[in-house]
């Protein structure tokens, strides 16, 4: 299996583990995306998707109106289609490792993005990803859970996981 997905509750440290791991892979061509919270005056107001090449677009915001909502956030699926699809296509063409930080429920309206995620997971290029625990049941209806290489993240194991998964990723990369 070429893919490693960290799964866990919100704010348990999944993205920090990915960032710490990726920072130790300076000689590896990495592509993909990160999702990042947006704050205004210390208040969480939304999320943006950022490609590894630093293209950004807001995809969730408490001021977005429309039928598609997750919690208090209105969702703009087009951000995944524009930034995410291009980032993953580029990674498939040119990179040694694909980062997906993170996939959850907000991507439900982004069909091309979902298809691109599946292409990545079925490719020979390893994926280091993050998945929200509450989104797992929805994603497993689209993905083969055997392709994911799930690692549960908790407060008790999160500090040791970068050192645990780094050798696994290097082993996969040097097959």
CATH topology: Rossmann fold
Q: End-to-end span in angstroms? A: 11 Å
According to CATH, the homologous superfamily is: P-loop containing nucleotide triphosphate hydrolases
Secondary-structure element string: EHEEEEEHEHEHEH
Strand content: 25-35%
CATH class: Alpha Beta
- In CATH, the architecture is 3-Layer(aba) Sandwich
* Morphology call: globular
Counted up, domains total 1
Fraction of residues in helices? 25-40%
**Rg to the nearest angstrom?**
15 Å
Helical segment tally?
Answer: 5
Report strand order across the widest sheet: 5-6-4-3-2-7-8-1-9
Low-confidence stretches: none
Q: What is the number of E strands?
A: 9
Category from helices, strands and their pairing: alpha/beta
Mean pLDDT level: 92
Oligomer: single chain
Largest sheet: 9 strands, mixed
Notes on the structure:
This protein is 33% helix and 30% strand. With 175 residues, it is α/β, with parallel strands linked by helices. It has one domain: Rossmann fold (3-Layer(aba) Sandwich). A nine-stranded mixed beta sheet has the order 5-6-4-3-2-7-8-1-9, sandwiched between helices. The longest helix is centred in the middle third of the chain and has 18 residues, at 77-94. The chain is globular, with a radius of gyration of 15 Å.
């Amino acid at each position: 299996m070429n893919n490693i997905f960290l799964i866990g509750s919100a704010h348990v440290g999944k993205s920090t583990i990915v960032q710490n791991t990726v920072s130790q892979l300076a000689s590896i061509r990495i592509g993909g995306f990160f999702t990042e919270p947006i704050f205004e005056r210390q208040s969480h107001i939304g999320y943006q998707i950022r490609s590894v090449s630093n293209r950004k677009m807001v995809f969730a915001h408490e001021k977005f109106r429309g039928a598609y909502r997750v919690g208090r956030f209105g969702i703009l699926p087009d951000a995944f289609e524009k930034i995410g699809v291009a980032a993953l296509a580029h990674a498939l063409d040119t990179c040694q490792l694909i980062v997906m930080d993170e996939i959850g429920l907000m991507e439900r309206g982004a069909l091309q993005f979902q298809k691109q995620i599946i292409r990545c997971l079925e490719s020979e290029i390893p994926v280091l990803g993050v998945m929200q625990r509450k989104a797992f049941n929805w994603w497993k209806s689209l993905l083969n859970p055997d392709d994911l290489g799930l690692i549960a993240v908790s407060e008790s194991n999160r500090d040791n996981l970068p050192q645990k998964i780094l050798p696994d990723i290097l082993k996969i990369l040097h097959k």
